[in-house]
Amino acid sequence: MSNFGFIIFAFLIAAAMIMALPQGQSLAPVHRRPATPRRPEGVGAGTFHGSQFRSFDEMGFVPGSPGVEAAPVFLYSRTQSIYDPCYPESAIVLGSDPPKPNPGSHRKHGTGSVNPGADCTNPGPYHGAYSLGRRFPVYLSAAYCGSSWRVNYDVYYVHDGVILEGHRSDWEGVTVVFKRDPSGLDWWHRDSVIFNKHGWHDHYSWSDLETVQVDDSGTSDVEDETVGNNRAHPKVYVGFFSHSAFAHRCDTCRHTDAGPATEHIADQEYRSNDWWRLPRAEDMHLWSEIDRNWDYGSAYSTPPINRDEMCGF
Q1: Is the CB of residue 3 less than 8 Å from the CB of residue 11?
Q2: Burial profile 122-158: b = 16 or more Cβ within 10 angstroms, e = fewer
Q3: DSSP assignment string, 36-105
Q4: Tens of pLDDT, residues 234-281
């Protein structure tokens, strides 16, 4: 076979291989996740290497990654044994191609009654306090903020509020802060959590939080409300009406305003421990899945926006 004939033959083989690929698939090389260095002696256990944050978007959500290992436990409440919370769901219309934003719920939510769960996903069977809730998506991003790394966890709801208050679509969440290990090396430990509540931000050090382990063996200490355990996962109590994030439950709080005028009023939102859920790797999505130009109404703090602004929280 002549050189020219060989070139034509090779071209035809390559073309046939490309045609045989599933639609949308290419021959682009697969990028391997960067290897995480071994933790040196003298560096605290439970720390994460800087490369795990710098390659946050590329590494994905795998065991040992900071987004998975420091994820918060979300807790939701009910009232009067009949009113359930507005439980999280996907911010993207399931099955849409191309992807489309969840339009949220436009209609008013209740007529003269406290009914924040209208139009929302059911949280799951209720068996008393600390019932295990259904799975829901969480949208993550990471940013370096000078002296710390931060990982933001955003959750979507189709609306907030009750009665004639509130708005369609709602984004709320928390930010976990990692500080450099005392050794000075490029290893980072859990330091604190920023609880986001309608533009206000509460900072709590790890030792001032309820933290739990919730290991994969089925053993759960999620009901432990002791402060200062310094375990892996911080507990986040979600406000019953506005979905603001709090470090501790408040069964005596009775405020129902979805758009509180002051931070003091915001702090009085009811939150408790009727359902809980720890997002696992399979529940996690990158911030980039949400188009920054999508319209979520008054819920402007979308994952792309929070990724840009989290260093200022």
Answers
A1: no
A2: ebbeeeeeebebeebbbbbbbbeeeebbbbbbbbbbb
A3: PPPPPTTSPTT-EEHHHHHTHHHH-S-TT-HHHHTPPEEEE--BTTTB---B---SB-TT-SS--B----
A4: 999 999 988 999 999 999 997 766 566 678 888 999 999 999 999 999
User: Whole-angstrom Cα distance, residue 155 to residue 87?
Assistant: 10
Q: Report whether pLDDT(224) > 90.
A: yes
Strand, coil or helix: what is 7? helix
Is a pLDDT exceeding 80 seen at residue 1? no
Q: What is the dihedral of CA 48, 49, 54, 56, to 10 degrees?
A: -40
Q: What is the three-class DSSP state of 207?
A: helix
Amino acid at site 223: E
The Cα 24–Cα 37 span in angstroms is 34
Rounded CA gap, 143 and 151, in Å?
Answer: 7
pLDDT digit string, tens, across residues 13-46: 444 443 443 333 333 333 456 678 999 999 999 9
| Stretch (H or E) spanning 10 | helix 3-20
